[in-house]
Design goal:
The chain is α+β, with helices and mostly antiparallel strands.
Length: about 280
Amino acid sequence: MMNHANLPMTETPSPCGIVTLTTDFGAGDWYAGALKGVLLSINPQCFPVDLTHAIAPQDVQAGSLYLAQACPCFPAGTVHVAVIDPGVGSSRRPILVVTGKHCFIGPDNGLFTGVMQAASSFACIELTNTAYFLESVSSTFHGRDIFAPAAAHITRGIAPLAMGRLIDDPVMLDIAVPAAGPDGSLTGTIVHIDHFGNLITDIAAGSIAGMAQGGIEISCSGTIIRKLCSSYAQACAGELVGILGSSGTLEISAINASARLALKARRGQTVTVRPHTGPSRAESP
C-alpha cells in the first residue's frame, strides 16, 4: 500500500552533494553534458554521477525500473535527476519526490513509480517556484532549465517546500503483478533484458523458494526450464537456467550466452513458474 504525500517535511534528508543523472539522451549529443554544466554552475561543490543515459527514447517504464534498482545503493541525501520526458512542454507537471533518504526530480509521468512504491512514505511537490529555474526556460529542455537547477539548489540546502506546493496525485504507471494460478503456478512478466541477454522478471525470488524444493518448471517462449540456480557457476556453458538474481527476482539466463537470443524473448513477455509434479521429460527445443 502506498503512502501519498505523507512524509513530514521536517524529515527530509540532509543533502550529501551527490546528484545522479538518468536520461534517454544517449552519448552522442551535448544534452547530458549541459545538465552537468548547470549543476556545477549553481553549486560547484556538488558531485554529478551518471547513472545511465542509455534508456531507450521515451521509455518511461524502463526509467522507473532503473531508478528503483540503482538508487537505493546511493547514500542518504542523494538527489536523483531523471529525464525521460516525452511530454516536455505540455501540461505535465515538473515534480520533486522526497523519501526518507533521497530526493527525485523530473517529469510527473510515472517515472518515479518504482521508487514511490518502494518507499515506506514519500511526499510529492510540484515545482512552481521559478526562482529555482534558469532565467530562460525552453519548452523542449526542462532537464537543463528546470530539473538540474532545482537539484543543484537542493544540494545547497534549499528546503524542498520552498520549490513549490505539495500534491497528492502523482502519475503512477499501471504495473502488472504476477498472477497465481489454481495449480500453484505464478505467471509474471519479463520486465527487463540486460546487456548480457538475461531475462529479468517481476516474479519475486521469495515467492518461488518453497516451490523449488520439490522441483520447478519455468515456462518461457514454449521452452520448459527445470534447473534453478543461485549462481551462474552451477550450470554448464549454454545451458538455460533460472537464477535467483541480484534484483531479488527470478531471472532466466543462458550460461555464457544470451537467453534473449536463445528464446527469442522480448520485454513484456510472460513467464510461468509452477511446481514440477510429473515424470521427468526432455526440455522443449
